[in-house]
Design brief:
This protein has six helices and seven strands; from the N terminus they run αβαβαββαβαβαβ. With 126 residues, the protein is α/β, with parallel strands linked by helices. The protein has a single domain, classed as 3-Layer(aba) Sandwich (Oxidized Rhodanese, domain 1). Strands 1-6-5-2-4 form a five-stranded parallel sheet. Strands 3-7 form a two-stranded antiparallel ribbon. β5, α5 and β6 form a beta-alpha-beta unit. α1 crosses α5. The protein starts with a helix and ends in a 5-residue tail after the last strand. 30% of the residues are buried.
Length: 126
């Protein structure tokens, strides 16, 4: 998918402020049993089609509205992902502006997760 220049500029500005990690980093954290919120910020239909095993769903359109109810402790570790790592960077940037101090965006998103052959599951958001 070709992205528009204004969108890419916004993403690049956010990337300067947001910590990113690889899909392997996330997979290793899960394998070690680390406790963190693993959140898919894609649209409902994208999440229902397939998502990283163990991920929960909060769409980018509502994450700023709902995050404080879901995760009131602002130091809690959170890893966000989307389709390719763009929307999750924007969401992570917004959460940091809201005072969340331990937010990471998974670079490459579900696309990189699939390419790595990591486990997927399907189904509607809880």
């Amino acid at each position: 998918m070709k992205h528009n220049p204004g969108f890419l500029n916004l993403v690049n500005q956010a990337k300067a402020r947001v910590k990113e990690c690889t899909v392997a980093d996330v997979r290793n954290r899960l394998a070690r049993g680390e406790r963190f919120h693993f959140i898919d910020v894609r649209e409902d239909y994208e999440f229902a089609k397939d998502h990283a095993k163990g991920a929960s769903h909060v769409g980018k359109g509502v994450i700023e509205r709902d995050i404080e109810t879901m995760i009131p402790e602002k130091q809690t570790p959170i890893v966000l992902y989307c389709g390719g790592g763009f929307r999750s960077v924007l969401a992570a940037d917004a959460l940091q502006q809201m005072g969340y101090t331990n937010v990471i965006s998974m670079d490459g998103g579900i696309t990189a997760w699939r390419e790595a052959g990591y486990p997927l599951e399907a189904g509607q958001p809880a």
